[in-house]
Specification:
The structure is a single chain. The chain is α+β, with helices and mostly antiparallel strands and 74 residues long. The chain has a domain of 34 residues. 47% of the residues lie in helices and 15% in strands. A two-stranded antiparallel sheet has the order 1-2. α2 packs across α3. The longest helix is centred in the last third of the chain and has 17 residues. The relative contact order is 0.12. The N terminus is likely disordered.
């Protein structure tokens, strides 16, 4: 069991698992949402796509001056 918060944050955070799945199973569905209000079709975002989008967002935030550890509210 990890007791130190800093260890927990660096070894078992959400990004750790996203990166792992993006490498191990990039074509596996990560998010499935209705594509329309009638829910007659679905949009599938795969782990590889999701990881790329997350990295793109992170790069944009870094360009704006945010650094690791900064807090962001969406």
């Amino acid at each position: 069991m990890i007791s130190e918060p800093s260890q927990r944050a660096t070894s078992h955070n959400l990004i750790h698992y996203l990166d792992r799945w993006a490498v191990e199973a990039p074509e596996r569905p990560a998010i499935v949402t209705p594509a329309d209000l009638a829910a007659t079709s679905h949009r599938v975002i795969r782990f590889g796509e999701l990881a790329a989008e997350v990295e793109s967002l992170a790069a944009g935030l870094r360009r704006k001056g945010l650094q690791q550890g900064d807090r962001v509210f969406f």
